[in-house]
Design brief:
The protein is built from 13 helices and 16 strands. The protein is of the alpha/beta class. Strand 2, helix 5 and strand 3 form a beta-alpha-beta unit. It is globular.
């Protein structure tokens, strides 16, 4: 897996150095000022937005190394180029069906996925007109530029960075581990009714949780729908869970500009009947710091990643509500296999024994159930596309949504 789902002890986390601590304190000051302006507390969604994306200070918008062995977690494109080569084959099918189109990648990380997809599509004779990247981090944009310049310099004229969604788009949209990093609201159910967890200042410094009666009408509406669908017996006393309104809003904005094309979203999560389950009574909120996972998002502001698993049923519902079709849903393992992983592996295999061992180890991480194979899912959303995406031909699980 790229991100662990078994927490380490917070007390075992390595201490940040003085520079990192000073950086974090600047972000703490910013958050504290906003709390004071808002009467002493802010929603967890707003807190998560600030600690991840505050300009120059948030985890994703500052210069700290995030990906790879020197960062906090490793994503599938960095585990193996085979992941991106399979993804490129799915892009090829969609681009050929469209006759022409662009690729738009959200949150392109270090740029390794973009480079491998472009290189593979060039070999397949199916390059997009443009490869667009939309990323909020200036630091990551520079890392992407360097990666792409080094790996595919001959294709740089096709690559463009965007500050916002284009007015109109035709082509393929890619989002690998994008939804899990969107700010979520944290809610609870107890004997005194539903409540929301907000963040306030702790008496001893830092931040603390505070329960607040649920007031937001949109959150209450989602909560009532979830309880009605899942059954009240699912929710024990003090059941904690997350609702991602940001993902709904993002899909609304994306659907508004998508003229024709395919949207592929890859992330870890579950369909709703598994997401809201008695065993997940503490929710799915998780933090990642130097390849250690824990469940306290209120420490190390700006220095750690904060994520929540994805409710893929909610993604599908939001897509349909905005005029998109749900064209496929399956596990990462099944998607990669249907997208030609055996053939891609055969092409990559050389006579060098160490290379063969390395590739086989990479395949295991990407596909085995106890690694990334089952926890990570792929969902396909389309508009104006007649051909079913090949990546879901082996085991389409839309019926589970």
């Amino acid at each position: 897996m790229s991100r662990k789902d078994v927490p380490d002890s917070v007390s075992e986390l390595p201490l940040p150095d003085e520079v990192a601590q000073a950086h974090s304190m600047e972000l703490v000051k910013l958050i504290t000022i906003e709390m004071q302006q808002q009467g002493g507390s802010i929603s967890f969604a707003r807190y998560m937005e600030l600690v991840l994306y505050a300009p120059g200070l948030g985890y994703y918008s500052a210069g700290k190394r995030k990906f790879g062995a020197a960062g906090d977690f490793i994503t599938a494109p960095e585990i193996s180029p085979l992941f991106s080569r399979c993804l490129a084959r799915q892009c090829q099918q969609a681009l050929e069906d469209l006759d022409a189109g662009d690729i738009l990648e959200f949150g392109a990380g270090t740029g390794v996925m973009a480079a491998e997809i472009l290189r593979t599509l060039a070999q397949l004779g199916c390059l997009p007109r443009r490869y667009l990247i939309l990323d909020v981090s200036a630091d990551l944009r520079e890392a992407q530029r360097q990666t792409l310049q080094q790996q595919v310099p001959e294709l740089m004229d096709r690559i463009h960075w965007l500050n916002q969604l284009p007015d109109s788009f035709t082509g393929v949209v890619l989002g690998n581990e994008v939804l899990d990093a969107m700010p979520i609201h944290r809610l609870g159910l107890g004997g005194d009714g539903p409540y929301e967890y907000v963040v306030t200042q702790a008496a001893q410094g830092g931040f603390a949780w505070q329960r607040q009666a649920l007031q937001d009408g949109r959150l209450r509406q989602r909560l009532e729908a979830v309880v009605a669908e899942s059954g009240a017996e699912t929710f024990c006393e003090d059941y904690i869970f997350e609702i991602n309104l940001a993902a709904q809003d993002w899909l609304h904005s994306l659907a508004a500009v998508l003229k024709q094309g395919l949207v592929l979203l890859i992330d870890y999560g579950f369909p709703r009947h598994e997401y809201y389950h008695p065993q997940r009574y503490q929710g799915t909120l998780m933090c990642h710091y130097r390849h250690r996972a824990h469940d306290d998002p209120l420490i190390l502001p700006g220095l750690q990643d904060i994520t929540a698993h994805v409710d893929f049923t909610a993604v599908a519902e939001a897509a349909v509500d905005n005029g998109l079709a749900v064209a496929g849903y399956t596990s990462q393992a099944q998607f990669l296999l249907a997208s030609g992983l055996p053939q891609v592996l055969e092409q990559a295999m050389g006579e060098d024994l160490s290379q063969q061992i390395t590739l086989n180890q990479q395949i295991k991480k990407l596909t085995l159930p106890h690694e990334m194979g089952e926890l990570f899912k792929v969902i396909a959303l389309t508009r104006g596309m007649d051909t079913a995406p090949t990546g879901f031909a082996m085991n389409d699980q839309r019926g589970r949504l």
